[in-house]
Amino acid sequence: MRDKTLSPLDKTAAVIVTFNRSAKLAKVIDALQRQTRRPEVILVVDNASTDDTQDMVIARAREDLSIRYLRLPENVGGAGGFHAGLKAAYEHGAHYFWVSDDDAYPEPDAIEKLLHAIRQFEAENQWRPSFAASRVEWIDGSLCEMNTPRPVWDWPRFVRPNAAWALVDSASFVSLLIPRWAVEAHGLPIADYFIWFDDAEYTRRLSRSYPGIFVPESRVIHDTPDNRGVNFGLVNEKSLWKFRYGARNEASWRRREGGLMSVLSYAYGVHQQMKGANVPGKMRREIYASIFKGLGFRPEIKTV
What we know:
Radius of gyration: 19 Å
């Protein structure tokens, strides 16, 4: 039952971006309905799925009026989906936005823990975290490699025995809580990225105001096929398209934030990873071409 004492400043919208994974999406909705602090709105952003996603979500929405369905006319990738979803939730008036993939299942108190942490941090300190990130675990309970937040140099500054919230400046779109003021100040995720590095770019942009916090007591299970981090030595024919987006997007961000030397440093690191893993020359050249393309790729950052 909802707490009738909640004020407008408590209003939280969950934004889930999905594409052709209705079975996993249904488990995400189940997990959100079990939350000890349920979001007032559960917004499903559908990247024009061709499976039964639309029918499933509309049927669930008839039973639960908090569920909203936003079907996009075409697949605009995870980046485009989070851009559209966050924009819609902002216009709906939410004060907090919980964003996540369609294959990540939050533990029942995950959102409550995030809300508690970000509010208590603000109450006890003079700073406002620009986001709060859950501990993302793989299906076997180990840390999910691809969703590891990046700490800042003074990450333990406010860590306490009963509040071990490290400062971080980069996190993934898997159980990430963002306050409304941060969206007002820094705009929306870059839709033109399509996929990969959209979450890193966005959280680093939000961190210009103040870093986010890592909240380990808020846990979410990421149901991915395997548990691997981002390493260009892992590129293969099947995953090449995604690595190309990643290379282009990070090169573009580095040119914007650090200039040519930052891009060259990035390119050297990518080269070393692929060389060490004996990635075939044809694929290496495609990755290098994507990094070069990133030098001239300057997507617009849209505000709300």
